[in-house]
Amino acid sequence: MHHLSQHDGEWQNRAELNCLLDILAISSRTDLKKEIIKEIERHTKCFIVFSQNPKVDHQKIKQSIDKLSQLSDNLLASKERIDYILTEVNLLKCLAQRNSIPGGTCDFDLPAYHFWLNKTLKVRREDIHAWTKNLGSIRESIFTLLQFIRFSAKSSSEIAHSGFYQQSLETIIPVQLLRVSTDINARYFAEVSGGKHRFTVRFMQPQESERPLQSDCDVEFTLSICQL
After folding, report:
1. What is the pLDDT of residues 90-118, one digit of tens each?
2. Which of 97, 133, 166, 171 is 20 to 30 A removed from 181 (C-alpha atoms)?
3. Domain 2-147, CATH homologous superfamily name and number
4. Is the pLDDT assigned to residue 174 strictly greater than 90?
């Protein structure tokens, strides 16, 4: 949504609302805010443990803990459900009901939607801002947590012999994220699978009309195992 909000036009606004409806659908199935607060608390405990190490930068640790505390306070200050806007804005409610139907948002099915799409850009942008303003604290929290997780790992250079790589995992600290990077011009893509104790990376070459095949070349790649 953030990317689409940087571009104005009917089709960008359509895509932006589709993203909003996806977010609201996900949040309606689980207490997303509660899960994020739990993750913030887990991160905070990790940083408190790190602060006991005399070799760390205590100023940065304190800044991280303060940032997490502020994010938690912002989430707790918002009492409404994330998807409450669906009950207040009839246009979004109708759009959510019709959006999964092929051709369901045509002008003859949702004339109110097309009336809105033909309003001035200023009005559409103001409406979208009003409908998404309660997502600001959610977005900032998720962005910060993912940033901490991604930066928790040091990258290492690895080789997948004949396109295959496998590694065991330490089970003391759970792995939140695996990051695999290759040359942008590579002729293959990474397929990652795994469980609690180990993971596998296979580099696959796409085929025109058949299933992708595992590369028979040795593939150099960069690996980050993110644990926090």
Report:
1. 999 999 888 888 888 888 889 999 999 99
2. 171
3. YacF-like (1.10.3900.10)
4. no
Q: Where in the chain is the domain with CATH 2.60.440.10?
A: 153-227
Residues of the chain with CATH 1.10.3900.10: 2-147
**Two tokens at 120?**
């001035």
**Residue 203: how many other CB atoms lie within 10 Å:** 25
CATH of domain 153-227: 2.60.440.10
Q: Is the pTM of this model over 0.85?
A: no
**pLDDT tens digits along 57-76:** 999 999 999 999 999 999 99
Reduce the secondary structure of the chain to three states and give it as a string: CHHHHCCCCHHHHHHHHHHHHHHHHHHHHCCHHHHHHHHHHHHHHHHHHHCCCCCCCHHHHHHHHHHHHHHHHHHHHCCCCCCCHHHHCHHHHHHHHHCCCCCCCCCCCCHHHHHHHCCCHHHHHHHHHHHHHHHHHHHHHHHHHHHHHHCCCCCEEEEEECCEEEEECCCCCCEEEEEEECCCCCCCEEEEEECCCEEEEEEEECCCCCCCEECCCCEEEEEEEEEC
Distances (CA, A) of 8 to 4, 14, 125, 129: 8, 10, 8, 13
